[in-house]
Amino acid sequence: xxxxxxxxxxxxxxxxxxxxxxxxxxxxxxxxxxxxxNDGYSNIREATEIQNIQxxxxxxCRKMAIPMYFIFPRIFTCPTVLNAPSFKIxxxxxxxxxxxxxxTITENFxxxxxxx
Length: 116
Prior knowledge:
Layout: E1 2-5, E2 8-14, E3 22-35, E4 44-57, E5 65-71, E6 87-99, E7 104-114
Parallel strand pairs: 1-7
Antiparallel strand pairs: 2-5, 3-4, 3-6, 6-7
């Protein structure tokens, strides 16, 4: 679990080795709202894509840091809400690597947004 503030999200991605041609690398910010009922039968989880940014286009260089940087859109984000009895608002960042042959790899990173 990463702790980030409401302003921005930064880092880097490195493709060490890859035998297949990379088509693109994308970052996706997702807002997840969940309602948990006490009966356990009606748990609802709704994920909404907020932002999608392409950080690599084409067959990127291997062993080179690709910087990632995006600003959280204030209208669609808020601090993470976990302490409500049956309602949660959480956020995730998906790193999506698409290949020329049609395959896609997605890595999901749950994040916690805090206001500083």
